[in-house]
Amino acid sequence: MTGSLQKKNGKYYAVINTYENGKRKQKWIDTGLAVKGNKTRAEKFLRDEISRYEAISGTVQSDTLLCDYARYWLESRKGKIDIVSYESYEKLLDSDICPYFKESKTKLNDVNVKTVQEYFDYKSKYGRKKDNTGLSASTLKKHKNVLSQVLKCAAKEGYIPSNPCQYVELPKVEQYEANFLTNEQASAMLSAVKGERLYPILLIATCYGMRRSEICGLQWDAIDFVNNTVTVKRTMVKQKTLVIKNSTKTASSHRTYPLLPIIKQELLRIKDEQEENRRFFGKAYIESNQVFTWEDGHWIVPDYVTVKFQELLRKYDLPVVRLHDLRHSCASIMLSAGMQLKDVQEWLGHSDISMTANVYGHLDDTRKKKVADEISELLTF
Asked: What pLDDT does residue 380 have?
């Protein structure tokens, strides 16, 4: 809470800035002190009145730092959001937001558009600790999401008049150029790794374009061997804690695929192996409903898949791509087969087709050119 001394009719008045429903209201209090010779006493009166109003209203103290309030906000979210989201917010506050505003000693009630914009401008130039270069636009969006939630809460509770994050300008997100394997390269990769533990995971990633979190999160109740379907309805995610979330990235990410014969064969083989391992390990076997596990039942986790995939690419002298690029490769294969962007959107589980067009539009243009060439050959003049 803030306040100031004002002079009126030869006397000092303490003006207290309070907030109700996000709107500032000023309370004028007569100090009873004449302006002449009473400035020090008037300043003490103001400080005492601010403290009294803070105690009455239960607001944070006038000298509360933004970084301290951010911790308070995070604690208030505990139990209201899932553990992975909580830990991701905690990590961002610990690594970037709190250290910056603690060093600048920014008070909560001094936060405005300028101070917040300065934070993002600084992080866009020097945010990466490894090499002191700028953070990407997509990473800055995550920072804005967290800081905006903090300040929205502060505005809702009446500590600040409004959320200044709504006016912050971020760098434009650059259009992403996806890497992908050609049909021939994808086939060669799958042939090379066929005897490896990772083979069924890479097969699913290439054929369905599923994310690594979705593949590692697959459980047996998502596989219907009678109706030959596989449904994406869970994800395996981790910050500090590894968890299975009974939800996908978006509603559109919850999708069902036809169970391809080659994938069905692999899944049935894995199911048989798990039964053998269960008998072999006995009570030491870790029971779960997970599809992809180690011999003793431990889950196979996303980070392992990412690292092992790179090892396999080097082992078999294959083109170096990221694991996520198999998702892009799936889209490329679909488009080269003549399928529409709408087909790709639904297959990959994008929330809207604009996302699909932004990433794969240039591949679709190649397909359209082939169509145009075929039309030209069919027409005679």
From this structure: 60
Give dist(CA 343, CA 359) in Å, integer. 14
When mean pLDDT is compared across 68-72, 79-83, 359-363, the lowest value belongs to 359-363
CA dihedral 245, 251, 254, 258 (to 10 degrees): -170
Supply the pLDDT for residue 124: 93
Selection from 274, 262, 267 nearest residue 225 by Cα: 267
Cβ atoms of residues 146 and 328 within 8 Å: no
- DSSP element (H, E) containing 181: none
CA distances (Å), 368 to each of 178, 188, 273, 335, 363, in order? 19, 27, 46, 10, 9
CB 135 within 8 A of CB 143: yes
pLDDT digits (tens, 9 = 90+) for 177-188: 778 899 999 999
Length of the chain (residues): 381
Task: Tell me the residue type at 39.
Answer: K
Q: Which of 244, 187, 192, 256 is nearest to 219 (CA)?
A: 244
Please check whether residue 38 is in contact with residue 62, taking contact to mean a CB–CB distance below 8 angstroms.
no
For the whole model, what pTM was predicted? 0.72
132: left (phi over 0), alpha (psi -120 to 50) or beta: left
pLDDT computed for residue 114 by the predictor: 95
Task: Supply φ then ψ for residue 86, to 5 degrees.
Answer: -60, -45
Task: Note the pLDDT tens digit of each residue in 203-261.
Answer: 999 999 999 999 999 999 999 999 999 999 999 998 888 899 887 667 778 899 999 99
Helix (H) or strand (E) holding 99: helix 98-103
Using CA atoms, how far apart are residues 144 and 93, in angstroms rounded to an integer?
11
Cβ neighbours of residue 272 under 8 Å, at least 6 residues apart?
A: none
In the predicted model, is pLDDT for residue 173 greater than 90? no
At residue 8, what are phi and psi to the nearest 5 degrees?
Answer: -150, 125
108: buried, middle or exposed (CB in 10 Å: 19+, 13-18, 0-12)?
buried
Average pLDDT over residues 159-177: 83
CB-count exposure of residue 181 (10 Å: 0-12, 13-18, 19+): buried
